[in-house]
Amino acid sequence: MQSISGFEPVWVSHASAILPDLDAVILPGGFSYGDYLRTGAISAQTPVIRAIRTFSEEGKPVLGICNGFQILAEARLLPGALLVNSSRSFICEETPLLVQSTGTPFTALLPEGTRLSLPIAHQEGRYFLQENELRELEQNGQVVFRYLSNPNGSVHDIAGIANRSGNVVGLMPHPERRTRSTSPGSDGLLLFESLLVSLLHRHPDTDKPKSPELSWANSRS
Amino acid sequence: MTTAASRFRIPASEMEMIQRLIGREPTLTEEAIFSAMWSEHCSYKSSKVHLRSFSSSHPRVQAGPGENAGIVHIREGICLAFKMESHNHPSFLEPFQGAATGVGGILRDVIAMGARPVALANSLVFGSLRHPRHRTLFRRVVEGIAGYGNPIGIPTVGGEVWFDDRYKDNILVNVMAVGVVMDHSIMSAKASREGLQAIYIGNRTGRDGVSGAAMASRGFSSDGGDLRPQVQIADPYAGKNLMEATLEIARLRLADSIQDMGAAGLTSSSTEMAGRSGLGMEIDVSGVPLRDFSMEPWEILLSESQERMLVLSVPENVEKIREIATNWHLSSAVVGHTIPKPNFIVRKGDQVLADLPISHLTEDAPLYNRPGQTEATGRSLSASPSLSGTHSLSDIFHRMLDHPNGGSSRWIYRHFDFEVQTRTVFGPGHDAAVLDMKDPKRTGVALSVVSLPHACSRDPYLGGALLVSKAVTELAAVGAFPLAMTDCLNFGNPENPLIMGSFQNAVRGIAEAGIALDIPVISGNVSLYNETNGTSIPPTPMIGITGLLPSIRNRIPGQIPAPGLRIAIVGQSRNLALGGSYLDWILEEEIQDSVPAPRYDDLKKLTSFMMTAAHSRRIASARAIGRGGLLRSLLLMVAHDPSLGAFLDFSPAVDPLPFFFSESPGRLLVAYPPDEESSLLETAHEWGVPFRSTGYAARNVWILRYQDMEGTRKEWTESLPGIKHRFQAALSQFMEELP
Fold it and tell me: Is B150 an 8 Å CB contact of chain A?
């Protein structure tokens, strides 16, 4: 990440109850605790999640990718749940998406309606929320990414959402897999560049903000 | 001396050998140890003599056969560790766990060398998908591979599949793992001295997989009862923790040596580690962490419970190693130590249960030079096919695409997380996978896995040679030259001279090709007794070859990016024999051709030409002419874009069947911008490689013009959506999710 976007990542253990001085938190994909019990359920109970909750309540940016999204949902930092894909199988493939909200630190450079191509790689990615809450989510503009050809049966084709204030974002597709010159595309870089721009905007006197990547006992994206 | 019937199914002749060696009756524990260590799976007793013809000598080789995995140097301190292994027997009994533990096992072999795994690949063979049982086996094997590879975070980047009823009672599941290790972190499985502590780390030991090695060394029979308890159970979360703990121990140089507790578990790891340096090992089974405290000592010794490693270290480091294990939520215990007397001593507290010279278990294990006999093919080797007229070319092409063997394998690789770790540059669906090493020089590593069940069944010797040649052709297509090879040799019952003969011939074919092409064999595995009720599988060796791209920027993709690019056939077309080809299989051997013999000099020239062309970046796309021949390979180059097709015009007269359907190695299709043609022709001429421009990529058409041997001009067109639909649906139509 450092070499590509200029961020300085710091790995933080799942057991830390206190975060170092960070500008943003990214929960990467993986299979934390082997996905045993339920995806993200055990990780959501780790000490670091309490610290991230406090961090997010200060309005600072938090991004959950794939398993990171599942953890944020289990921790109730984001609404809804990620269920087993409607095909009941693991799906790894490139998927087109539409950006639906520009009001998050991760989509600041992406006008509404921007089409992105990112890969998904999950077995439990079917976003679900009760009808009344779903209506509220839509009304508040909390849907950040929508699938163009829904691969997993998510309600309202939802691929990614934000919390009410927009600083916590979770998505099932993997932007970090589309950031390198050797990857099939580089659309994912736009999310990290958006973060950079948002952070620079927030800290006008620092030209190189620090930003961490969190480590999980068993995740690696 | 009388021969007692073995409680562990050791043959009577071998029981006699044991009694002669030790001069007494073995104890129950000793007999159990012999049953595992003398099993075909551990001792290679039928194959060892022949495997000596493989050459592993090459300046790049850092570790060869005999270690957990082979290691080859790639550049400035960076090495690759890799190996291929079969999990055929367990996968047939319990496909999900069998395949998952196959992946776990091969990963631990690479990890034990201190290498971090960066890629997995597989080669799978099943019976026809018309049988519901094989649809289930196939689905569960694919899910099992995904069920271990995905959670542990290692991308499955490539593979291949073949469906053939000759395998309806014995499926083949071969997996390969590749890891990266720095020179100074390479571990060994050889104990360096006496007084080392043997530390067990990982999951607790249970009854799963007891005697798995012995089970995998026999055929199946209908009265064999339920063998499922001999299949191990995978725990990818513990496997991930064990991987991180082992790599931490290796990185901190805390261990003297490390070995995976794989086949024959604690027994083979402890005896082999000590035996490699002429030392002995004393084990106390009462120290082994158990899941079930009622386990007998012999069960503890033979258990193949997964996710376990044996680490040898000096006493000072024991505490630190155990602390690392605890941090990764793993059990650990000191279970023994190396001793000067070269014996394997097993105790339970004060009670000695076994005391055997290790040499009796390893060097003195029976070695069979079983008689081999070459099967007469019963075919004329010179007759050429004259089938035009009896089959229309279009019909043949459709039949090839309609069968799962000729269709897209997307249904399979959609289950695999092939991009985790963000190194995958070319994933499944390419001739060879390509990985970004993320080093300052931007090195790329390519990986090709090849089996040719039909060609090997027609002629094991030429089939073996073809495997290597095909892999080299596939590596050339992406712009890589070959580094080193691993193999997995799947055969039937070696006591049958015809099968032993085919084994010897296949080994000879692979070994000769490896030597001719300068590709060392650095690791491998043999799976014999793939038979059921006396019927064996056809000879099915599989190989994996790694290749190097000096700069990842010069990689050549397998898809044609745009219409208007010119297409050429590159490489020698002197011998287009159809024997053993997919066409031969589809037509059920109406073809009298022999299997084509590879020409190694031509292959070397082809690699040199492609490396040169890749370096100057004149080629936009390339693909080996592989399964199904020229046209199916062309279809693979345009399959990604629904409206992309081709217009080809072959000017000199051609014999249609061999021309369109031969799989003779050393031929590629390349696509390039028209203005590069003259310089490509020049480079091809310099390397002595035939280069025949034949047409271009075009939108919405599939037109082939040629002149047959009678001089008649022909035009063959296909509906582009039609052939693309056949290709996409062939496999997935069998595997659609049921309501």
Answer: yes
Interatomic CA distance for residues B549 and B586, integer angstroms: 36
Residue B100 tokens, joined: 């998952």
Strand segments (E) across B41-96 = 61-63, 70-75, 78-86
* Element counts in chain B: helices (H) and strands (E): 24, 28
**Contact check, Cβ <8 Å, A92/B235:** no
* Res A2: pLDDT: 53
Q: How far apart are CA A53 and CA B356, in angstroms?
A: 60
Euclidean distance between CA atoms B690 and B288, whole angstroms: 63
Terminal CA-CA length for chain B: 64
Contact B269, B310 (CB under 8 A): yes
Please write down the HEC assignment for all residues of A74-139. Answer: HCCCCCCEEECCCCCCCEEEEEEEEECCCCCCCCCCCCCCCEEEEEEEECCCEEECCHHHHHHHHH
CA distance A79 to chain B (A): 25
Q: Which secondary-structure segment (H or E) carries B272?
A: helix B265-275
CA distance B560 to B565: 8
For residue A2, is it left (φ>0), alpha (ψ between -120 and 50) or beta? Answer: alpha
Check residue B147 and give left, alpha or beta (phi > 0: left; psi -120 to 50: alpha).
alpha
To the query of whether residue A174 is one of the catalytic residues in this protein, the response is: yes
Tokens 């899910």 found at: B143
Q: Is the pLDDT of residue A6 over 80?
A: no
pLDDT at B93: 92
Rounded to a whole number of angstroms, the distance from the CA of A220 to the nearest CA of chain B is 7
What one-character DSSP code corresponds to residue B247? H
Q: Chain B partners of A87 at a C-beta cutoff of 8 Å? A: 737
Element (H, E) at B401: helix B393-402
Query: What count of other Cβ atoms lies within 10 Å of the Cβ of residue A111?
Result: 8
| pLDDT band, residue B44 (cuts 50/70/90) | confident
Alpha-carbon Rg of chain B, whole angstroms? 26
Domain of A103 in residue numbering reads as 2-220
Residues 6 or more apart whose CB falls under 8 angstroms from that of B39 comprise B213, B214, B216, B217, B264
DSSP-assigned states of every residue in A30-84? S-GGGG-SSTTTTGGGSHHHHHHHHHHHTT--EEEETHHHHHHHHTTSSSSEEEP
pLDDT of residue B711: 86
DSSP B61: E
Q: What is the CA radius of gyration of chain A?
A: 16
B556-739 belongs to CATH 3.90.650.10 = yes
Q: Which of B347, B313, B306, B349 has the alpha carbon at shortest distance from B330?
A: B306
How many structural domains comprise chain A? 1
- The domain limits of chain B are 187-369, 556-739
pLDDT-based confidence at A204, cuts 50/70/90? Answer: very low
Q: What share of chain B is helix, strand, coil (3-state, %, to 5)?
A: 35, 25, 40
In chain B, % of residues over pLDDT 90: 81
Task: In whole angstroms, give the CA distance from residue A92 to residue B416.
Answer: 6
A23-72, pLDDT tens digit by residue?
999 999 999 999 999 999 999 999 999 999 999 999 999 999 999 999 99
Nearest-neighbour CA in chain A from B442: distance (Å)? 10
- The CATH label, of 3.20.20.70, 1.20.58.460, 3.50.50.60, 3.90.650.10, for the domain at B187-369 is 3.90.650.10
Task: Kindly state whether B479 is in contact with chain A, defined as any CB-CB distance less than 8 angstroms.
Answer: no
Q: Which ipTM did the prediction report?
A: 0.90
- What is the sign of the dihedral through the CA atoms of B246, B248, B249 and B251? positive
What is the 3-state secondary structure of B516-558?
A: HCCCCEEEEEEECCCEECCEECCCEEEEEEEEEECCHHHCCCC
Cα gap B68→B64, rounded to integer Å = 9
CATH number at residue A40: 3.40.50.880
The neighbouring-strand residues paired with B308 are B202
